[in-house]
Amino acid sequence: MFRLPKFFKKKTQPKKGLEAYLFKNFGYHIKNIPLFTQALTHKSYSNTKPGIESNERLEYLGDTVIDLIVADYLYASFPAKDEGYLTMVKAKIVNRKMLAYIGGELELRNHINYDAGRSIRLETLEGNALEAIVGAIYLEAGYNQSKKSFLNFILEKYIDFDDVLTQEIDFKSTLLIWAQKNKIGLKFVITDDACKENDFMYSAKASINGKDWGQGKGKSKKEAEQHASKETLQLLGIDASLR
Question: Which of 53-62, 111-120, 190-199 has the highest mean pLDDT?
Fold first, then answer.
């Protein structure tokens, strides 16, 4: 069982070690070492060090790039499937749970700069760092390289498509597919977030054509949106197993 140290400790790697690690796991020779060091820096560490940036902006960028890479890949791989099916499969690949799993397999926690004295979900840090690394590759080498690294070293190695395609669909994906098929405007809004001893609780609502429907709470935005989607499906009388 992993035990958090009681003292603050910076977890980092020598430059050569970081370069070797990223080449081995992403197939990419990095050039701007500070950029990738930032990609592996959590705000719990950067907040204590003036002048050091966290990986939050790179995480945001990487999340968008990964979403496009997977959408691009699925569009080419399943030419006979409609947008509802592609949305369902993408939602199973591009989600916090899957990215956290992959980050764990990559043992990213051994390379992340963070405050080990705080109560932090390391799985979340690893998933976020994975996104930030992809964002850094995109900034340094562009879309084609980030796509090559993600498809060849992440998707093909860690994602079992046979398993993904047989998984039960989640509530949000079901609602998204229903909205797309019926050409109905659907969006999710985070209505509130509260923090108690580093434990966030989010509130979300589903809005259909500008009208509020289901609401939900969760320890992550994704979880809150799932609960809001479930309640919306119930209100609409839609079977959650819809494909």
Answer: 53-62
Say whether 63 is catalytic: yes
Question: Could you confirm whether 131 is annotated as catalytic?
Answer: yes
Q: In angstroms, rounded to a whole number, what is the distance separating the alpha carbons of residues 242 and 174? A: 6
What is the structure's pLDDT at 34?
Answer: 93
- Classify 189 as helix, strand or coil: strand
Question: Which residues are CB-contacts of 84 (< 8 A; sequence separation ≥ 6)?
Answer: 176, 177, 180, 181
pLDDT at 1 over 90: no
In degrees, rounded to 5, the angle at the alpha carbon of residue 70 between the alpha carbons of residues 65 and 75 is: 125
Given 59, 115, 131, 170, which residue is catalytic? 131
Supply 114's token pair. 């963070």
> What is the per-residue pLDDT for 16?
62
Q: Which two tokens stand for residue 225?
A: 């949106």
The catalytically annotated residue of 63, 115, 170, 225 is 63
Specify the residue for token string 């690949």: 93
Rounded to 5 degrees, what angle do the CA atoms 101, 175, 123 make?
15
